[in-house]
Every structure is written in C-alpha cells, then in structure tokens.
C-alpha cells in the first residue's frame, strides 16, 4: 500500500466562471508545491 494522501475538496458555486477559475488555481498551486 502506498503512502500517498488523497484530499477531497468540494466547492459549491452558483454557475459562472468563479468555480472553474478557483479550481484551476488550486490545481496549479498544488502542482507547483509537488502536492
């Protein structure tokens, strides 16, 4: 069994571009921090 952690993040948005932009920024930050 691996030691990798899985973290689930749930965003509740009301349409528009806000949730998409926020999730992309979060993914880029996690990638840059080698998370």
TrEMBL record:
Name of the protein described by the UniProt record: Pyruvate/ketoisovalerate oxidoreductase catalytic domain-containing protein
Taxonomic path: unclassified sequences, metagenomes, ecological metagenomes
């Amino acid at each position: 069994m691996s030691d990798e952690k899985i973290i689930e993040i749930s965003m509740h948005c009301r349409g528009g571009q806000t949730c998409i932009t926020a999730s992309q920024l979060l993914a880029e930050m996690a990638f840059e921090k080698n998370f």
